[in-house]
Amino acid sequence: MSFPDVFVHRHNNNWRVELNPDNAPRLRINSQYARLVRRADSSTDNLYLRNHLQEARWFLKSLKNRNQTLLRVASCIVERQREFLESGEEWMKPLVLRDIAEAMQMHESTISRVTTQKYMHTRAASTSSNISSPVMSAPVTVVNVHPPRFAP
Known about the structure:
Blueprint: E1 6-11, E2 14-19, H1 31-37, H2 44-80, H3 82-87, H4 97-104, H5 108-115, E3 119-122, E4 127-130, H6 133-136, E5 142-143
Parallel strand pairs: 1-3
Antiparallel strand pairs: 1-2, 3-4, 4-5
Helix pairs in contact: 1-2, 4-5
C-alpha cells in the first residue's frame, strides 16, 4: 500500500497542495552536540564534531529543498489539471516532464527525480494519483477514481 506524498484539497474556491507530514522525516540537530561545537578550541574532537555538524546541516537543508521542490511541482500539476479536479476524469490532460520542467524552469531530470514513486491524493475527487515520471510522460493515470461529489 502506498501512502500519498501530497494532499490536494479545495479551500475557498482554490486548490491547496500540502505535503503529507507523516512522510516527512522529523529530523533535527541535537542541541547538546551543537553547543559542544561552539567551544573555541581547535582540538581534533571539536573539528570532527564541527565537520559532522556542518554535514548534518547540509543534509537537513537538502531535505527541505527536496520537499519544497516536490510541493512546487505538485502545485504546477494541480494548476494544469484544474479541470480534472473540478469536473472529473474525462477532463484529465496529458502531461509530460518537459511541460512541467519548462513551467518550473528546471531540468526534466530534476522533475523526474522529484516525482518518481510519489503519490497525490485529491480529496475533492477522492483520487490517489501517481505523479511519477512514467505517468507524466503519458496521460496521467489515476488509481481509485470516484467522481467528484458536489454539494446539493
